UniProtKB/TrEMBL annotation:
InterPro entries: PsdUridine_synth_cat_dom_sf, PsdUridine_synth_N, tRNA_psdUridine_synth_TruB. Its EC number is 5.4.99.25. GO terms for cellular component: nucleus. It catalyses: a uridine in mRNA = a pseudouridine in mRNA. PANTHER family: PSEUDOURIDYLATE SYNTHASE TRUB1, TRNA-PSEUDOURIDINE SYNTHASE. Keywords: Isomerase, tRNA processing. Residues 64-202 form the Pseudouridine synthase II N-terminal domain. It comes from Hermanssonia centrifuga. HAMAP family: TruB_bact (MF_01080). This is tRNA pseudouridine(55) synthase.
Length: 342
């Protein structure tokens, strides 16, 4: 293991291949007992003491435990690259928040939700049968380059000390329009037109009329009004069981870009509605699910940590566990040795 030639413990960055479903921090918390009890990242002389203190504090790690952080959370629905910083590597996570990221996302036409993805509730449905691939291709042009993007009304961002979603849920008028943020979309293209050949469907949860009216009150007087009214399909429905059109987008964007907002706004741009049904972060800076360049770094599968948490196995001839070897193989070492407790 050439990376261990230098003195231990190490500090660094590595990418986890997050699965769809759990929230990012829950995965980080599940990894902590492993990270906090390996000589890769903690001084060997403090390991036993650290383990004892952790048990006594019922999961609260001692001040001598190494620092661990993440470089940009992923929604529960999303999977893909989640960068983890260990020790002094946590100081480098900020730069990864602002770096260029790449995503693949599947958009489903005909319905928009409060969260702009399939985890949310239906807010409105709209016609989708008129939308062609050519129309979507043409509409994509307005979302490329330097654009201004408004965060969703149902987001955790605050305005005058209150979350935006609280305004929407409680029907409290926004004091002013939601400020649009400048972002850069370096590239944006359709890589697959699924049409109706898929198993995606609209969420079963729906907004009640009362909830819709609350959103309308919150947005009262705001220029870019959020639409909550359903629009019936205008085309004759000769095949009622046909799935709404879906397509896959690939994009390269600056930090702070809302992929869900691009899909939501694109639905409006083609005279329909849309929400995200799959979302994969395929690259964050030099960390990638599928490394292609000489400086690219691959990801450690989540299953590696899940397996080690259940049964870490036996050390090899050099004294390393399987999960430690896999992490070290993908680890970008930062500033050499990390001094625990500093």
């Amino acid at each position: 293991m050439p990376k261990v030639a230098s003195s231990l413990p190490l500090s660094g960055l590595f990418a986890l291949a997050k699965p769809s479903g759990p929230i990012s921090m829950s995965l980080v918390n599940q990894m902590k007992p492993l990270i906090m009890n390996t000589r890769l990242f903690v001084e060997a002389s403090k390991l036993d003491n650290s383990q004892t203190q952790q048990k006594q504090k019922k999961g609260r790690f001692s001040r001598n435990a190494v620092k661990i952080g993440q470089g940009g959370t992923l929604d529960p629905l999303a999977d893909g690259v989640l960068v983890i910083g260990i020790g002094k590597g946590t100081k480098h996570l900020t730069s990864l928040l602002d770096c260029v990221k790449e995503y693949r996302t599947t958009a489903l036409l005909g319905c928009e939700t409060d969260t702009y993805d399939s985890e949310g509730s239906q807010v409105r449905v709209a016609p989708w049968k008129h939308v062609t691939r050519e129309q979507v291709e043409n509409a994509l042009e307005q979302f490329r380059g330097e654009i201004k993007q408004a965060p969703p009304i149902f987001s955790a961002l605050k305005m005058d000390g209150k979350h935006l979603y609280d305004y929407a849920r409680q029907g409290i008028p926004l004091p002013r329009p939601i400020e649009k943020r400048p972002v850069t979309v370096h590239s944006l293209e359709i890589i697959e037109w699924k049409g109706s050949d898929h198993d995606f469907r609209f969420p079963e949860k729906k907004f009640t009329e009362e909830q819709k009216q609350a959103v309308a009150r919150a947005m009262n007087g705001i220029k870019d009004q959020v639409r909550v009214d359903d629009e019936p399909e205008t085309e004759v429905d000769n095949a009622p069981n046909v799935a709404p059109t879906a397509f896959v987008l690939k994009m390269k964007v600056s930090g702070g870009t809302y992929v869900r907002s691009i899909v939501h706004d694109l639905g409006h741009a083609v005279g329909s509605a849309a929400h995200v049904v799959t979302l994969t972060r395929s690259r964050q800076g030099r960390f990638a699910l599928e490394p292609t360049g000489k400086d690219d770094i691959g990801c450690v599968a989540w299953e590696v940590f899940a397996k080690a948490a259940e049964n870490p196995g036996e050390p090899d001839a050099d004294g390393w566990l399987e999960w430690e070897r896999k992490v070290l193989d993908k680890l970008e070492i930062v500033e050499g040795k990390e001094q625990s407790g500093k």
